[in-house]
């Protein structure tokens, strides 16, 4: 019967994760959720909420570091689901810096992680942000075509960055920016590297700040890099590793992963968990509404048309979460995403969030369409999950390539 492998399969989170989930949920329910509508209207970074979170240690490198290192891999998905259950715009303000930190953690040296990641969070009373700048006005999905250039000035031991980045979360207001740039444009995506731009560096400025459809409490802006000079040690992973990699590629060998793609891969299950949080919020809200809203003398939830919608919503949320947990667990155990499981989680969770929040509006009827109720905001928020960190089409392309082995384009 047994092949000698472990007989245990469990989705039990265990005491530590369960306790952490309760703690984050409490903050999401008492601080984030009540502030959601206000910051959506203000379209500004909710600094007071970040401060509150910093005070209790929730907005801190320590907290995110612990969750990233958590043995099962579920620390981040569990925490992100709760934060985004509270509100996605505020949630993104709370986790945006951790996405930038991942760009350094995924490829950086221990010294770089130690020096720069803490500066992306600051401390209670002096909260700071980090930003990851990959997308450009022309290359969005096509990360390999990035035009921002990094050239090395050997005499000064400095890198010089020039280009324009766009749609950058925390762009221009972050303390530390991580910028993806082409070192050898002829090599396409394999000639790129990420660079840390320290606080206060001259030449980096904020361009246009975007007014958005959803997640409006999260700041999104252009970042203009004009002769930005950063110390030689600011190339993520170090100069030596970059030179070796470029040499390998020039000789026709494999040069490792693209800098930006590696960051996206590592962060996909986390982004999927954000979408699960929004979808769950909407499913729960619509369920409570359907139990109490009476038409034709009975709760609307007694109509199969409504109950079936609620059933589909719950099943979809749970399915998305299971894919998310699988991908996060695989990533933490070092199992390769042979069928693009990270992309599967992002694709299904993103599409689920859009569909479920739309169904929630339908169940709330006229109320659902007004700003008196949160579901219209959640629907606007949900749409981002089919777009950023790789659109749904890009996820399908990656899954398609993985499962067919063909060069699907
Ligand atoms: C609120 C917000 C926050 C963001 N935050 C950041 C950030 O912090 N850092 C950062 O670097 N970027 C960020 N982005 C950018 C985001 O990652 C890009 O918008 C996304 O990658 C898509 O690129 P694009 O907008 O240029 O779309 P395009 O690449 O122009 O795509 C447009 C459409 O064409 C489709 N398409 C493109 N290529 C293909 C293909 N090969 N096959 C099939 N369909 C295709 C896409 O799926 C999409 O539907 C953010 C964007 C937003 C809106």
| Strand arrangement, major sheet | 4-5-9-8
- Taken as a percent bin, the fraction of beta residues is 5-15%
Q: Overall mean pLDDT score?
A: 94
Main sheet attributes: strand count, strand direction, barrel closure = 4 strands, antiparallel
Q: Pick out the low-confidence regions.
A: none
* H-E string: HHHHHHEEEEEEEEEHHEEHHHH
Question: Can you tell me about this structure?
Answer:
The longest helix has 34 residues, at 259-292. The protein has helices at residues 14-42, 47-55, 61-69, 75-86, 88-107, 110-116, 239-250, 259-292, 304-332, 341-369, 375-382, 392-404, and strands at 122-123, 126-127, 130-133, 149-153, 158-169, 176-182, 192-197, 204-209, 220-231, 294-295, 298-299. The strands form 4 sheets. Strands 4-5-9-8 form a 4-stranded antiparallel sheet, with helices on one face. The chain has a 3-stranded mixed sheet with strand order 3-6-7, covered by helices on one side. Helix 4 packs across helix 8 (259-292) and helix 9 runs antiparallel to helix 10 (341-369). The chain is α+β, with helices and mostly antiparallel strands. A hairpin with a 2-residue loop joins strand 1 and strand 2 (126-127). It is built from 12 helices and 11 strands. The relative contact order is 0.11. The structure holds flavin-adenine dinucleotide. Flavin-adenine dinucleotide is lined by residues 132-135, 140-141, 167-169, 212, 215, 220, 384, 387-389, 391, 393-394, 397. Flavin-adenine dinucleotide binds at residues 132-135, 140-141, 167-169, 212, 215, 220, 384, 387-389, 391, 393-394, 397.
């Amino acid at each position: 019967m047994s092949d000698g492998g472990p007989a245990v399969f469990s989705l039990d989170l265990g005491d530590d994760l369960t306790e952490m989930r309760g703690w984050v949920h409490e903050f999401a329910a008492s601080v984030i959720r009540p502030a959601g509508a206000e910051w959506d209207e203000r379209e500004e970074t909710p600094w007071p909420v970040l401060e509150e979170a910093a005070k209790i240690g929730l907005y801190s490198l320590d907290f995110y570091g612990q969750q990233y290192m958590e043995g099962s891999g579920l620390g981040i998905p569990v925490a992100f689901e709760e934060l985004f259950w509270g509100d996605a715009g505020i949630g993104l303000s709370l986790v945006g810096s951790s996405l930038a930190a991942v760009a350094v953690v995924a490829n950086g040296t221990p010294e770089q992680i130690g020096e720069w990641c803490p500066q992306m969070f600051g401390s209670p009373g002096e909260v700071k942000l980090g930003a990851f700048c990959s997308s450009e006005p022309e290359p969005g999905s096509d990360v390999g075509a990035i035009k921002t250039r990094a050239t090395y000035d050997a005499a000064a031991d400095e890198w010089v960055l020039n280009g324009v980045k766009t749609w950058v979360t925390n762009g221009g207001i972050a303390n530390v920016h991580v910028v993806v740039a082409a070192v050898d444009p002829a090599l396409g995506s394999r000639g790129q590297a990420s660079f840390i731009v320290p606080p206060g560096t001259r030449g980096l400025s904020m361009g246009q700040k975007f007014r958005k459809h959803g997640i409006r409490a999260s700041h999104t802006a252009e970042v203009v890099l004009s002769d930005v000079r950063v110390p030689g040690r600011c190339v993520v992973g170090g100069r030596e590793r970059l030179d070796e990699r470029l040499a390998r590629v020039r000789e026709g060998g494999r040069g490792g992963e693209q800098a930006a793609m590696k960051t996206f891969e590592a962060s996909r299950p986390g982004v999927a968990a954000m979408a699960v949080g929004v979808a769950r919020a909407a499913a729960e809200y619509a369920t409570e509404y359907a139990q109490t809203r009476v038409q034709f003398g009975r709760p609307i939830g007694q109509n199969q048309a409504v109950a079936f919608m609620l059933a589909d919503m719950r099943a979809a949320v749970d399915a998305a979460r299971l894919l998310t947990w699988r991908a996060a667990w695989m990533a933490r155990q070092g199992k390769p995403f042979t069928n693009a499981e990270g992309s599967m989680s992002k694709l299904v969770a993103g599409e689920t969030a859009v569909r479920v929040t739309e169904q929630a509006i339908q169940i709330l009827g006229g109320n659902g369409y007004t700003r008196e109720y949160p579901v219209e905001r959640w629907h606007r928020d949900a749409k981002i999950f089919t777009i950023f960190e790789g659109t749904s089409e890009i996820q399908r392309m990656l899954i398609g390539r993985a499962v067919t082995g063909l060069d699907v384009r």
